[in-house]
Design a protein that fits this description.
The complex is a heterodimer of chains A (about 290) and B (about 300).
Chain A: H1 2-31, H2 38-56, H3 64-81, H4 91-113, E1 128-131, E2 134-137, H5 138-160, H6 162-172, H7 174-179, H8 184-206, H9 217-231, H10 236-256, H11 262-276
Antiparallel strand pairs in A: 1-2
Helix pairs in contact in A: 1-5, 1-8, 1-9, 1-10, 2-3, 2-8, 2-9, 3-8, 5-6, 5-8, 6-8, 9-10, 9-11
Chain B: H1 2-23, H2 26-51, H3 59-75, H4 80-102, H5 107-127, H6 129-132, E1 138-139, H7 147-174, H8 176-186, H9 188-193, H10 198-211, H11 213-224, E2 226-227, H12 229-232, H13 236-248, H14 255-271, H15 278-292, H16 297-305
Antiparallel strand pairs in B: 1-2
Chain lengths: ~290, ~300
Amino acid sequence: MLYLQILVNGLLLGGLYACIASGFSLVWGVLNVINILHGSFIVIGSYVGLLAHQQFGINPFLTVPVAGLLLYGFGYLLQRGVINRAVGQPVLVTLTLTFGLELLVNNMLIAGFTADYKKVVLENPFGQIELGALFVPVDRLLSMVLALLLTGILYWMLRGSKLGRAIVAVRMDREAAALMGVKVNSIYAVTFGLGALMAGAAGSMMSMIYPISPIISTAYLGKAFVICVMGGLGSVPGAIVGGLALGVIESFGSLFFSAELATTFSFVLLILLLIFRPTGLMGRRGYE
Amino acid sequence: MRRFDTILGPLVVLALLIGFAFVGDNYFLRLATFMLMYAVLALSWNFIGGMAGYPSFATAAFFGLGAYCGAILQKAGVPMFLSWAAAGLFTGVFAMLLGRAILHLKGHYFAIASLIVAEALREVVNTWTELTGGGMGLNLPVLQMDVTDQARFFFFAMLVVAASTFVLSAVVIRGKLGFGLSCIKQNEDAANILGVDATRYKVFAFVLSAVFVGPAGAIYAGWVNYIEPADAFDVLLSVKPIVMVILGGAGTLYGPVVGAFAFLILEEVVWRNVLTFHSGLLGLLIVLLVLFMPQGLIRVTARRLFRRTAAP
């Protein structure tokens, strides 16, 4: 029964991980840019949730759209103004650029909010559902459902809408898409904005679950990366599978080892995966 | 004649540095020691990043590992020089094992995998309280020495490591290994076909990028007498060498040294007044370099040295 409970806990967390990784994976797949800022985007989303809760007593679930839209705007402008100039250049250039931006943004966050750990504690907790001996906290269930819903919308948007098809077209062949009349730079900016939106939305919900501090942004980045490698690059279903898998694995990992070693654990896992199954769990080649 | 130049130049610098150690005051000795440390980090990164074209972010991992290895051994009573050498050996072996695991990755994958190494090590050090002191950090035995003598001692220790790194760089760049690495950088598949054992060469370069960073970390630990995980595994230790090498010229022999010198001056002049926004300003500098000097420092060297990756 304990194992079932741990499995459920892992799946609940995994939904949020899927949401985080889908945005990261989208940007990586379409722009061929590793967004080192992704972790800080999540942290900003968390602070939106925290501030709204502290100042106005608003539940962080309600700030999900606010955080999402705010980060969409931020991401869009950042891509338009700064990163677009470097897209298509060698890995070291784009990587160094987003790393520089991460240092800048993260330092601003520390200056503004300090590096202390904070957390949203709800006055009216949602309580939990009991299924026999199984406990399911309602807030976590809600955040998992909402996170998976958002990821599903992203998936549907990419497959079904005109904008989504344009994004996929740019990912497949930038030159051909440009010749077909797709405004590539603007698609890049929208894509980067969408990635930031997913991070902000997940971050807002994360504010109830994870400690909030600018210094955990690298841990989030590491998770997003591990999920991408597990699920295969650039695919939303891959991000969902990888996210849920990482949630479950971390959950069992902290049972057998220590919760403080979560990053180490996922890193060792990543190394093993790269050695034994380099194409990801979904069997797609991606890491070359 | 050319051979004479390449030996004479560094020797003059070396003589100046040694002479400087007996003239400079504590402040300048501290600065010079930092410069030598940065030169070690930059020259080391140059093996894997500049020569082989693999964007490694593992320098902080090697540095922290060396610092902790040296500190723990010294606390256990091992003589100082031996503990520094052990730090180098340990870091080198670690790099060999890690390299075998992650060096078959390319581009972004390699970069991020190497970046997470330092994070993972920091977690381990944080958690393993009995051995490492955890988040409380580790105090090292204080040397029974006059303050200026001490500053001079660590300056010379760092000088020995920096000079060794430089000499080895010179040997590698002119030798078969350097040639093989530049083949890998230009086209790894072609290099493989032509008989360059790419995997072995890359692992070798990765080990070279670690063996001197480890002792530098250990010396740093003895120098500042106190280390903690956040300090020893600081991610900036991975980023700064890259900026230095790019500033100076990647893949060249003198570039990393010049870059380290320029970077230190920049750091000292600009940032010592804004301690709380140190990393933010470094970030801003990086962004400005990439955006507004695309033809200048970064792009020219980067384009020559790193193949463009095709967008998928």
